[in-house]
């Protein structure tokens, strides 16, 4: 019997110690010979978890295309057996969990392939994880004594698979580095974004996407000390690693900056040994809060970006500008070495990482460093928008409470951009920085980030009160909540008799969601073009009127209306009279019936995949309303009469050919509605037959052209190294303007007469002559915060940002700015909904 037990034990050892395989042994090819499909990546990590006692997989969700999301964890067997205690000890350091830590193990999280077509990352993840997990590697055993390594091998499996499947179909049998070969031209929309064409690397703070929500929920269970995000850049750039470039947010701690330098020097030494080129302290800054390096940094980690030259065009190998072939094998090796360096430096500084992490939360929560330390959100002016903002704070684990009745408070009024005195009520919300999420709170609410350098990698202003369109104040002193926040229970609507009509509000995103649900159920809905009073209550323009007349043949009509309202927590006001006290009666021609729009969205090679994705996501995941997707290149084949709304996302020049544009315009004049966004306006600006112009007069046009030539002459004489800085003088990078909204026009319904637009381009359009200027920049005082070039800022006054032009029986809706940028500019979703459902009815 002993012999049997000994044999079984020996067999067990053989399975657990010697059966594990390297990526090459498991996959059957050398790393760099091809791109590995996602399901095989999953298989490999499951193999390691099944054969190594010190490896653990945690599945944390799935993508929109139902691919698994998971992390792989490796450490010493002792640490793995004590993993839950190590995890909880780390949460104690943040103050999010009470208690005193008894362990001091560093948590190193490395994320790969958040951009799907930067597909070297997943190959490098398998290579790096195997080297660290390999039982025969004595060096890694030493590194893991005081470190838990977490690897997310593919943060964007849908984007990666889109790229991998395409490339594996198009690649040549022999290595073909010719940049003109088909395999080096990835088709639209590319593998960079996720299923809905959203850039997941810019979604961390906003959490609009399923993958991000699930990942951050897991992140909050660990709160790592180091977070390394692996990317690729253009093939002619060699390799980038920390330290990061300026601007560096003022909230970065001295140790966060110190560790970046430690890592940079350690990695540089390894690259120098191999004679590899690299650069640091350039291009990639630490400012915008929704990146995979900045959001972890604002949560106490040392966040770092890694960028290897190559990206989707490089494929298995491509010639760079010097005529050298940059191969996938080389790219894997370089990212692998950068990963090993992170593991090594973490091991060398494990105790200090844990101590400084604890100090980060202790010092910031007791003494916040930024100018504004408390924020008051007025809760009674638009509670639906406030609740949406609070939901985002919940996702980010930011604490808040009720303000109570206070007077004589002084703070920055976001709406005016100036200091003001105000009072609070028991409906108002207080968020202050005296909490574990101190830094993130201050960053998300700061009106404008301090810039050490005006050349930035992304937008410079994102304050939540602007993006959600709520009234708020920023205070320089501490203001604590009067009592804990408790959401008021929604008083559900009930079916009570058969009222003549149900009235519903229109001022937040949930209201078009409610409307879409009714239209999907074939319920007819009207809206009031004019404000009215009925039975002692006032109703603004845009109020939804769900009248029994026209819905009498809908089965369970009342229950369907009530159920839809309860789903979105919308209080209905039933009435048995269509006779109003003031305004227009419900039978008036100014109470418009909403014809359920049949909507098409244009896509194609010249269309911005990101703007396309924002609109696609909005319809499918937020409105839950049907939308057809049309290839802009093939419009000649399609019967456009099937649609009454066409969305034209931002695009490069020529998104629609001349013949196709003629067809679309004929459709508009026959009664269609075309909604054009950002650069798509170039299709119409300054063209004969359209009211859209960049200039108020012909003299102004000539003067602008003359000025442009003078600027070009000056730029020619500028030192070469200053030309980039000169170039940004005519651009905008997230400048916030308060627009004056014509709330009497359907495009302006529910916005309260103003809208905060996020300007990310230097385009300026004069007021429409024949059309309606719904959203305008009336003067230079409308500017609030964020970077805008010195040469265009003075010219933004008296310009149109959102407008409507009639063409025949139809309309073109002009949207010079993107109203719901990256799906996080929440208040803009109502503006787009107005364009879709109200304009032209």
Overall geometric form: globular
- The computed structural class is alpha+beta
CATH architecture of the largest domain: 3-Layer(aba) Sandwich
Q: From the alpha-carbon coordinates, what is the Rg to the nearest angstrom?
A: 29 Å
Largest sheet: 10 strands, mixed
Low-confidence runs (pLDDT<50, min 5 residues)?
A: 1-17
* CATH 4th-level superfamily of the largest domain: Zn peptidases
Number of strands: 35
| Oligomerization category of the chains in this entry | single chain
CATH class of the largest domain equals Alpha Beta
Cα-to-Cα separation, first versus last residue: 87 Å
Q: Average pLDDT across residues?
A: 94
Family: Belongs to the peptidase M14 family.
Protein name: Zinc carboxypeptidase
GO molecular function, one term: metallocarboxypeptidase activity
GO biological process, one term: proteolysis
Structure description:
- This protein is α+β, with helices and mostly antiparallel strands.
- It folds into four domains: 2-364, Zn peptidases (Aminopeptidase, 3-Layer(aba) Sandwich), CATH 3.40.630; 370-484, no CATH class; 501-593, Alpha-Beta Plaits, CATH 3.30.70; 599-837, Class I glutamine amidotransferase (GATase) domain (Rossmann fold).
- It contains 24 helices and 35 strands.
- The strands form seven sheets. Strands 26, 27, 28, 29, 30, 31, 32, 33, 34 and 35 form a ten-stranded mixed β-sheet that branches. A seven-stranded mixed β-sheet has the order 1-2-4-3-5-9-6. A seven-stranded antiparallel β-sheet has the order 15-14-17-12-16-13-18, covered by helices on one side.
- The longest helix is centred in the N-terminal third of the chain and has 21 residues, at 254-274.
- Mean pLDDT is 94; it is low at 1-17.
